[in-house]
Each structure stands twice: as C-alpha cells, then as structure tokens.
Amino acid sequence: MADAGEFRPGTVRGAAGFFRVGQDAAGRWWLIDPAGAAFFGRAVHGVRVAAGQGEGALPVDSAARLRQWGFNAVGVGGDGTGHDDGFAFMAAVNFCRAGAAIVAPGVRLPDVFAADWPLAASAQALAVCAPLAGARELLGWVTDDAPGWGHLTSAGRPSLLQICLSLEPNFAAYHAAWEFVLALHGRRLATVARAWGVPLANKEVVREHTRTETGLATRGYLRDDARWTREFARRYFTTTAAAVRAADPNHLILGCRFSGAVGLQVLAECVYPAVDVGLPDWSELPAPGAPPGFPVFAGNVCWSDEVFWRIPPPAISAGAGQAGPFRPGSPLAGRAGPRTVKLTAVERMLQRGRASLARTARHLAVVGYVWSRWQDEPGEQPPFARGLVHVNGAEAREHTELLAQFNARADSLRRAAPSSLLP
Questions:
Q1: What is the model's pTM?
Q2: Is residue 141 within a helix (H) or strand (E), and if so which, with residue range?
Q3: What is the DSSP string of 90-128?
Q4: For the chain, what is the mean pLDDT?
Q5: CB atoms closer than 10 angstroms to residue 266
Q6: 367-413 confidence digits (pLDDT tens)
Q7: Strand runs labelled E in 258-355
C-alpha cells in the first residue's frame, strides 16, 4: 500500500495523524489512514447491534459480520456499533436540529436564511464535534443524515423554491424566497406569472398549489428554482463547514449524506473547500471520463434500486461448448437448435450490481463506497430488499456473498484504474 509521501504535492487534505485524502501520481484519489497508508473505504450505513435469529438462537455479532464480509468502515444512521471494534466510522452532526427547520414532503433542511442560523450551527457543531476531535478512527463528519433537498422528481411534488415560497411568514426563508423571485422579475408578481407561465393572482396561489402537492414545473419556474437551490446549498455547505472546522480542525468534512438524486445545483456547492470528500448518491457519480478534480464516496449503494433496472446488461460468456459472449435474451446454438437464454430478475440484478461495483472501484474520483442499509425496512421482500441483514436477523446472502467477493479485490481493482493523464 502507498504511504502519504507518494501522493501528489498540494492534493492532500486533512490533519496528519487522522484520516486524510489525496491524489496519487496516476490521478486516483485515495483516503489516507492515520498511519499514512492508502485506504479504499468499504462501509455500511445504519449498522446496529445484532438481533436474534429465532427462538433459542444467539445473535451474530454485527462487527464480526462486517469483518467477514470485508467491510472496513461504518457509515451513519446506526447505534454506534463498530465504533469501538476497530472500524473507521463516519459521524453525523445533524445540523437540521440547529435552529428552525423546513420540513415538507421531500424537504428537510435548516432555515439557512435565519439571522441566528450561523450561531445555531456553531453551537450544534461544538456540542457534537468537539468531543470527538481527537478520535483517530473517525473518518469524517457528515453534516446531516439524508436531508431532503426538494429535488423535482417524476412524482410531481413541489420543489425547494416552491416550498420556501409557501412557508409561514415566521420563516426567514419565506421572505428570502419572495425577495429573490421578485428581484429577478422587476419586483412585480404579474411579471413573475408571465415568466413562469403560471397564473398568479397573489402569493396565496403558490401556497395552494403546494398544499395540494401540485409542483410547478414550467421552464421559467425551473430556471428560478435552480438558481434558488444553488444559493440555498451554498449557504448550507459554507456555514456547516465553518462550524465544523471551528469545533474540530482535525477531521474531514463529507458534506451531507444524500439518499437519492439531488441535481447538479446542490452537488455544485457540495465541493472543496466547503467539503473535503462528497457523498453523492451512486446514481450521481461524476462521469467516469471526467477529470477527477473532487474525491467522492459512492453513496447509498444498492442494486435493488430502480436505477439498476435501467442499466444495460453487460455481455456474459456462453456456457461450455457454446459460442462466445452473448447478452441475455440472445439465441444460442445447441444440439436442439437455437434457443434463448433468459436470466431471472435476481440474476440480472446481481449481474448489473457486479459490473457497477467494478466500474466504481476503477473510477478515479471514488475513494470508497457505502452500502445504503444494514437491515431491511419493514415491508421489503427479499431478495429485492436492501439490507445486508433481514428483519429476522438472518444474513441476506443475495447481497453479502457478492459484496464479500468484491471487497476482497477492491484494492486491486482500484490500483488497476487507468491514469487520468495528469501533467
């Protein structure tokens, strides 16, 4: 394994003796552990103490399971399991608990426009971060665990600007949003209505659309929503970074844990110097061929998500005695004549998951990945549930066997990533 002396000058971030991040001569980003060695993170969110597996059965130790499956770190959202068992761990500051919070369908954020928000953020960071400032196993600080950014989705729910325009007047974000919109359109509501292509007799019309969960989606509105969202994100990430660094100058800042796609406007502000390493959703990783300018974890990894059913299946090899590579559904010649091989849904899911993990390990900007969930949610049905452990405590072998295989070779895959052709 490389040591910190082999990383490119000027790329290493973080304090010596704690987890850092840096770029090697080939352009690959790596975490750097407290001893100075390169470290590819393999983590799981939501790890908890083991539950029983039926009458009379002793629970299997969660830390032992993590080691058996090849993980070396613990994410956020758990009960602290793994923190004292030799694993690197992430910790959440939970800035959404500091000051007034904006809570609506798809949105959970602090009111970053409130006059007391910087002080509230500083107090939250001091209370949470300062006690762990000397912890060498702490990988970095997550500002919030799965906040909601109001990203416009196919569900048609209101996005962030519409939510803020519909808040009660005691929220600073309400006044800031209306000031922002009116300033863009000559301070006239009629001009806003024309630009958006939406009838707006008064401000209450926007609130009524929000009350009925009818999202505005015209081109003019979306243009303003994008600008507002980026300004909101800028305030969030710069203020939280300043608060964390004042309370704990030793550890990396990982931004917030994204639990789904949030769009380019938010990701554009979740970057250095406010954030040292990002945690974007796996579906929003930078393009593999893009310059690796900012290190990221592949966050919220899970191949049960619908995004994986849109990934074209990779070519696979035909069986013994059959001709070359084929894709599922292609005809194969056999003694009985041409036939079609069809993979089951589980086989397709795992095939695509295996290929996606390998691509992730070779991505120059990726310093590790975080599996989305330790245990299945109630109502999820294996083998398409998301946890590594079922509700009854049994191992989800449909996930863990593939992950254990990948984890065993992740470092070698990482080192095989092609050079970025750095000068």
A1: 0.89
A2: strand 138-142
A3: EEE--GGGSS-EEEETTEEEE-TTSTTHHHHHHHHHHHH
A4: 88
A5: 26
A6: 999 999 999 988 888 888 889 999 989 999 999 999 999 999 999 99
A7: 296-301, 316-317, 325-326, 331-332, 339-340
